[in-house]
Amino acid sequence: MTDPNNGGSIATANRAAEINAGHDRYLWDAVMRYYETPLPLARGRGQHLYDYDGNEYLDFFGGILTVPVGHCHPTVTQAIQQQAETLVHTSTLYPTGPIVELAEKIASLTPGDLSKTFFTNSGTEADETAIMLAKAATGNQAVIALRHAYAGRSMLAVTLTAHAPWRSVDYISGIKHALAPYCYRCPLKLEYPSCGVACAEDLEELIKTTTPGRVACMIAEPIMGVGGFVTPPTEYFQIAAEIVRRHEGLLIADEVQTGWGRTGTKMWGIEQYGVTPDVMTMAKGVANGMPMGVTVTTPDIAAKWEGLTLSTFGGNPLACAASRATIQVIEEDNLAENAETQGRRLRDGLEKLQEKHALIGDVRGMGLMQGIEMVADRRTKEPAVSEIMQLMEETKKRGLLIGKGGLYGNVVRVAPCLNIGADDVDRAVEILDDSFAAIG
Ligand SMILES: Cc1ncc(COP(=O)(O)O)c(C=O)c1O
After folding, report:
1. Among the atoms of ligand 1, which is closest to the Cα of residue 149?
2. Residue 422 buriedness (CB in 10 A; 0-12 / 13-18 / 19+)
3. Per residue in 255-305, pLDDT tens?
4. Distance from the CA of 153 to the center of ligand 1, in angstroms?
5. CA–CA separation, 162 and 180 (whole Å)
6. Calpha distance 298→279 (Å, rounded)
7. Distance 127 CA to ligand 1 centre (A)
8. Could you say which DSSP state residue 39 is in?
9. Distance between CA 159 and CA 151 in Å, rounded?
10. Which residues of 276-292 are buried (b: 16+ CB within 10 A; e: fewer)?
């Protein structure tokens, strides 16, 4: 018999073990899972997730920053239910109310003249669409991405991604990886601000030495998510945009993780740097967990895509209805402001932990996107790789789910839903404190 309180799954005493065994048997080994014994999840509500034994977890990773308004938010659920009873699929061959209403809403929230959207189903597709558009619009082929970036799992996205473990099958030509604005591990061994943001200035030489001197675009995350919440200095994007545009390129802001108020106060991460991009991509939180990718640009740039294109599922009515409801909650509940307020509280808490625990080398991020880089030795900055695994186990034992990232897999990623409250932030910091203490 199926049990709705158990993830709509067949209810048996050893359901979690059965799911793990089934996963091992029927899914690809390459599918990454957290924890020594992976954690099958049965249901979610608000900031909480529940396993098959009914244990409750405070979710401070949100399915990789993908549920900004919390699990199964009633407004989003109702919108999905209503739409499911009305119309589920048409393809982009037939316009629908939900796709146009959502595109109009996005246009009202994006900066500058970014008002024309193409919908797909994932961040990978959104980024891939943006790169194809930049090539079409400029007539140039060279693409600049950042070292430590992540862009998804198509062949192009894997090649844009700059982490060896995620690049087992690359290679599309014409992609140049620029130095990352990663101050804690500065690639030029300089100190901010006396460095003069030399990593950004280096783009000029990168373009002049590794491309024909003209580029299609630069794609960059305002805060590098999978890279371990690497947060560029404030001036980075102004310098980068000027250099890229002077060489005919477009600036693509990958807002897949940083969008929808995540970074606090502002709707988009790139706005924190006072720059308006030419193209923005979004996914993850856009529909609170329903699959959706968004590529938005100006009418002039969109018009440069000549020829035909379609997406069978892109902008399907269900995902659009979910997204419209998600945005409604983000706006009505002032969640960008809450991300700022609770983000400060979280940051203060994490900085206090840094004073206490030698394993914490760096705390960085914005709003409700805070990273803790763990090091075995603060002087050498040797990544604390086994220690982060232990920390994950300890936090799980205490009922807190967190993420990890970074080139060495040594950065804790803390990113709860945007409507998190002060008590839950304090609780998460307390659990992290106890867990760091437990691993010494
Ligand atoms: C910044 C960024 N861009 C693109 C992607 C790819 O998104 P998806 O997994 O939906 O294809 C991700 C996924 O983590 C991401 O973090």
Report:
1. 1
2. exposed
3. 999 999 999 999 999 999 999 999 999 999 999 999 999 999 999 999 999
4. 8
5. 10
6. 7
7. 8
8. -
9. 8
10. bbbbbbbbbbbbbbbbb
* Whole-angstrom distance, CA of residue 115 vs CA of residue 85: 30
Phi and psi angles of residue 297, each rounded to the nearest 5 degrees, phi first: -150, -170
The reply to whether 52 falls in a domain is yes
**CA-based diameter of the chain, in Å?**
65
Give residue 293 CA to ligand 1 midpoint distance, Å: 9
Distances, alpha carbon 58 to alpha carbons 201, 399, 401, in Å:
42, 6, 6
For residue 370, list its beta bridge partners. 365, 414
| Residue 371: closest CA among 413, 407, 416 | 413
My answer on whether omega of the bond before 193 falls inside 30° of 0, hence cis, is yes
Determine the residue of 64, 124, 292 to mutate for testing ligand 1's pocket, defined as the one with the most ligand atoms within 8 A of the Cβ atom: 124
Instruction: Judge whether 328 lies within some domain.
Output: yes
Tell me: do 327 and 349 sit in the same domain.
Answer: no
* Mean pLDDT score of the chain: 96
Measured from CB, residues less than 6 Å from any atom of ligand 1 are 64, 122-124, 127, 150-152, 221, 225-226, 254, 256-257, 283
Beta bridge partners of 217: 143, 250
In this predicted model, what pLDDT tens digit does every residue of 295-314 receive, in sequence order?
999 999 999 999 899 999 99
Q: Do 219 and 293 belong to one domain? A: yes
Cβ-contact 107, 115 below 8 angstroms: yes
Residue 109 identity: L
Half-sphere exposure of 362 (CA within 13 A, CB side): 22
Per-residue pLDDT at 1 exceeds 50: no
CATH classification at residue 176: 3.40.640.10
Ligand 1: which of 223, 284, 323 to mutate, most ligand atoms within 8 Å of CB?
Answer: 284
Number of domains within the chain: 2
* Residue 70 lies inside a defined structural domain of this protein: no
